[in-house]
Amino acid sequence: MSILKFVVLSDLHLGLPEQPVNGLDTAARLTEAVQVIARDHSDAAFVLLAGDLADRGEAGAYSLLQSIIVSLPMPVHITLGNHDDRSTFLSVFGPDRDDPKGRVSQVIDAGNHRIILLDTSEPGLVGGRLCRGRLDWLAARLDEALDRPVIIVQHHHANPLSLPVDEIILENAEDYVEVLRRHPEVRQVIAGHVHLPSTAVWRGIPMTTMAGSHYSVTPHVPGVPGRQRQLEGPAQMAVVLATDDGVTVHFQDHLERHLTMAPGLFH
């Protein structure tokens, strides 16, 4: 059985060199993730970076990102999150990454699958939004691939999680799902943003979130007393295995500390 393997990293939150973010050395965490990928998943077809690359959208953080990911032995494809600054990112990585309609989105056809890396970020918003141009771009990319399964990777979650982070969800998720329904087999929508793993089926579409490489949060679902806690880890990647029969998403921790972080680290 042929298997397409790829790795997703999200929520890197890089600062300037030597600059901790919320008390964490995010550059060291990303470096560790790159080392784990090279050690365990050198057979992966590619790596996807699903946004919040930089914590404050600084050019120095994007340059730092370039210097770390260059050692990966496979192609790396990138989209943006709400912490990113699109124009600054493009000034470092090149303006050719910006599509007039899809923005920093991309299609990868591999292993008899279409992988769509979708830019859900909108300048000035913490939550996500897909403008008409990106919805039309997505519809066209789905229509081109009606003969194969589709996996979508993006920053913002579309499905409600009944968690505090739903305040900054993809705003026009209903419009988004209406576009997804054009395709007979969207097998997974994989998102970052929420800093914890979850799985769901929403409006008939399988949806997954991952913790990412920065801090994690506790699943503060309705009925849980107190407040949501931030944890040092796990720092996590998603390892995706796609076959003709289906898609499996594994969560691999590349840092396993789970200590509760002091509230004073968040402002």
Describe this entry's structure for a reader.
- The protein has 267 residues and is α/β, with parallel strands linked by helices.
- The chain has a single domain, classed as Purple Acid Phosphatase, chain A, domain 2 (4-Layer Sandwich), CATH 3.60.21.
- The chain is built from five helices and 13 strands.
- A six-stranded mixed sheet has the order 4-5-6-7-9-8, with helices on one face.
- Helix 1 packs parallel to helix 2 and helix 2 crosses helix 3.
- It is globular and about 50 Å long.
- The termini are far apart.
- The model has no long low-confidence stretch (mean pLDDT 95).
Task: Describe the secondary structure blueprint for this structure.
Blueprint: E1 4-9, H1 26-40, E2 47-50, H2 59-69, E3 76-79, H3 86-93, E4 106-110, E5 113-118, H4 132-143, E6 150-154, H5 173-180, E7 186-191, E8 198-202, E9 205-209, E10 216-217, E11 230-231, E12 235-242, E13 247-255
Parallel strand pairs: 1-2, 2-3, 5-6, 6-7, 7-9
Antiparallel strand pairs: 1-12, 4-5, 8-9, 10-11, 12-13
Helix pairs in contact: 1-2, 2-3, 4-5
